Amino acid sequence: MTRGNALLTGLDPEQRAVAEHAGGPLVVLAGAGTGKTRAITHRIAYQAATGVTDPRHVLALTFTTKAAGEMRSRLRALGTPSVQARTFHSAALRQLRFFWPQISDGPFPELLPQKSTLVGHAMQAVGIAPERETIRDVAAEIEYAAVTLLGVDDYVERSGKRALPEGVDLDAMTRVMHRYSELKTERRVLDFEDVLLVLAGALGTHEDIAAQVHGQYRSFVVDEFQDVSPLQYDLLMRWLGRRDALCVVGDPAQTIYSFAGATDRFLRRMPIEFPSSREVRLVRNYRSAEPVVGVANSVLRRTGRSPIQLIGTNRTGPPPAFTEYADDGAEADAVASRIAGEVEAGRRASDIAILFRTNSQSRAFEEALSARGVSYVLRGGERFFARREVKEAIAVMRAASHRGGSDPLDVQVKEILSSIGWATTAPQAQGSVRERWESLSALVGLAEDSQAETELPVPLAAFIADLEDRAEHQFAPTIDGVTLASVHAAKGLEWESVHLVGVSEGLMPIGYAETADAIDEERRLFYVAVTRARTVLSISWSKGRRGGAGIGRRPSRFIGEVQAGRPTRPDAPARKATVAAPVRCRVCGALLTTRADRNRGRCAQCPADVDEAVLEALIHWRGAKSTELRMPVFLVLSMPTVREIAERVPESLDDLGRVSGVGPIKLEQFGHELLALVREHRSG
Question: What is the helix (H) or strand (E) element at residue 392, kind and residue range?
């Protein structure tokens, strides 16, 4: 059997069609869990093995360092290590550094690791108090304008449909944007969006640079194409030039980053932009058990976005559990107890996840797991490769690689690591002893995964190269602990058992999702959450924050849709979107078009009539509550929210709930207390 034929072994008919496609653009519509990474990495390796493309001229693009690292690992295991697999930003930064001497006489600018400090300075310069929450929202708005290719003037024209950060009107926002740009120039720094913008500009104005890039990269593969922004698409088209050697992979039903400027428009328009493109649909779900696939398909039917319906592969599993609890504490305790039972029954903690809509929901589950002695990992970057035992293990494996060996990779790695104390069973001791064992076990797991990807033996030297690449990009392996993550952070991951929590109206869909489009995106987020589960799916919600007190919560509409929608008749009428009644400014009577203005009840520029006594009382209350709860004051209530309460002087929970920054959680947490304070201190 030739190497090319060997690379096709084990692929399903659709995956094989992706791998064998040569020449011209290819659109791969890949449902959740359908093996898209396997399909595109085998495509790259097969084309290299059969001489269709030179792997040195392939650029594979994705959106996270983890996904890029996984792609590089699989390509190495398939015998194609020379392919460049990078994120858009990593590829652009590498090229921009290389070409900088041809673009500018000065040294390469410093890169901003994050925008907050400079945005805060820009806000201060134009007279806006730089509160942490406001800085975050203003920075997000600046980033949105950049990735959607909106200059300040264009942003002003199109901002009417966007809710501006609290306390920042359009004039203030544009002044901040101008000042932020000036500060970057004065301090000679670039943010991440600038890297793409400057490179795209260089490719458009320097023919010699474009020619060099076109000579180096002649074939492109883009994963998660539904997540590209206009800026990324523009750069991709400049990389591609007049050629059409482009393979894109995506799923419109997993479009969940519209708020950040991502759009599936480019994926849906591929047949128009590239009329000769071929489409292949991956629909066989290899990840999830049949009951989970059934729930996913029930959600898919209502997304109105994707023609894909998943086909299960007869994996068995229990029916998904739908559970309501009296309050948040009861939900956290019950979920933690169930997870403790799973671990006791033999399931690895790293095969379990708790997913939620907002990061603020995490704390109760952290405490409940800790009370039961269950280890957990908050989704985020650990500096795994800086650990002493990991450095030692890599050094020992590097020395052993010179001796060669014919055993499978995982067998070799287990034998080598046994020499420095690794064992197949976990030690009884906790603390540093347990952490050392978990680190070494993570390396063993990587070796097992690498070998399982191919029928061919994986050389130890190639595995070490993969570890070095992971270390460079901080792409750490899985540590044994229950994962706690927001659904957005969980995209691209999967677990044997998934507990999706807090699935109530106001959280999923989130309270500020008001339009039909926004609700559809929340529904797609729910679909992404459901399809993270391989075998066990548990969905839960609670009636209230604590003790069943406060405003009664209702389960999410998505739960009702799933339970009522299996199966859904193909001819069932579409649900009509609810259209909000028009709201006029209480000061000037003008029609209010933005969400922020509607919530405020007046135009941003109209004068506010603030009850000074209420304002002073609220400020004192906020400080005391901050001390009581041991959290920063802005996490209790932001200052713009405090001012708006003093302006509106709400008389009911419904009135209070219309204040910007008072969502369902804060309403339950502080609602009655705030109303009592307002009643006590209001003038007249």
Answer: helix 388-401
d(C-alpha 465, C-alpha 443), whole Å: 13
- Tell me the C-alpha distance between 158 and 380, whole Å: 34
Write out pLDDT tens, residues 586-643: 677 676 655 556 656 677 667 667 888 888 888 888 888 877 776 666 667 877 788 8
Please name which of 236, 248, 112 lies closest in space to residue 183, comparing C-alpha atoms.
112
Do 263 and 229 contact (CB within 8 A), yes or no?
yes
Q: Which two tokens mark 562?
A: 């799933």
For residues 301 and 565, is the Cβ–Cβ distance under 8 A? yes
pLDDT tens, residue by residue, 344-378? 898 988 899 999 998 878 888 888 888 888 888 77
How many other C-beta atoms lie within 10 A of the C-beta of residue 668?
21
Sign (positive/negative) of CA torsion 123, 128, 132, 136?
negative
**How far is residue 220's CA from residue 240's CA, in Å, rounded to a whole number?**
8
Scored b (16 or more CB within 10 A) or e, 189-227 reads ebbbbbbbbbbbebbeeeeebbebbbeebbbbbbbbbbb
Q: Helix, strand or coil for residue 498? A: strand
- Neighbouring residues of 200: CB distance < 8 A, sequence distance ≥ 6: 231, 234, 235, 238
Pick the closest to residue 500 from 455, 467, 538, 446 (CA basis). Answer: 538
Q: What's the burial of 128, exposed, middle or buried (CB within 10 Å: 0-12/13-18/19+)?
A: buried
Q: Is 568 helix (H, G, I), strand (E, B) or coil?
A: coil
Burial annotation 479-512 (CB, 10 A radius, 16+ → b, else e): bbbbbbbbbbbbbbebbbbbbbbbbbbbbbbbee
Provide φ and ψ at 87, rounded to 5°: -75, 165
Q: Does residue 362 contact residue 331 with C-beta atoms inside 8 Å?
A: no
- Three-state DSSP class for residue 216: helix
* Contact predicate 218/243, CB 8 Å: yes
Residue 384 has pLDDT above 80, yes or no: no
Compute the distance between CA of residue 146 and CA of residue 115 in angstroms, rounded to an integer. Answer: 13
Strand order of the β-sheet with 219-222 is 84-87, 58-62, 219-222, 246-250, 26-30, 278-282
- What is the pTM for the complete model shown? 0.71
Residues 450 and 77: beta-carbon distance below 8 Å: yes
- Whether the CB-CB separation of 477 and 413 falls below 8 Å is answered with no
Bridge partners (DSSP) listed for residue 591: 584
Quick one: which of 508, 516, 513, 537 has its CA closest to 296?
537
Q: State how far the Cα of 241 lies from the Cα of 210, in Å rounded to an integer.
A: 8
CA angle 396, 400, 403 (to 5 degrees): 165
Asked if residues 390 and 437 have their Cβ atoms less than 8 Å apart, the reply is no
Q: Which two three-digit tokens encode residue 324?
A: 């309501």
Mean confidence (pLDDT) of the chain = 83
Among the listed residues 220, 215, 282, the one whose alpha carbon sits nearest the alpha carbon of residue 254:
282
Q: How far is CA 186 from CA 108, 110, 190, in A?
A: 14, 12, 11
Cα end-to-end distance, the chain, whole Å: 90
State how beta strands 26-30 and 246-250 pair: parallel
Beta-carbon contacts of residue 305 (< 8 Å; ≥ 6 apart): 252, 253, 255, 264, 520, 524
User: Alpha-carbon distance 478 to 348, whole Å?
Assistant: 11
Using alpha carbons only, how large is the chain's radius of gyration in Å?
27
DSSP calls for 8-68? HTT--HHHHHHHH--SS-EEEEE-TTS-HHHHHHHHHHHHHHTTSS-GGGEEEEESSHHHH
Q: Count of alpha carbons within 13 Å of 110, Cβ hemisphere only?
A: 11
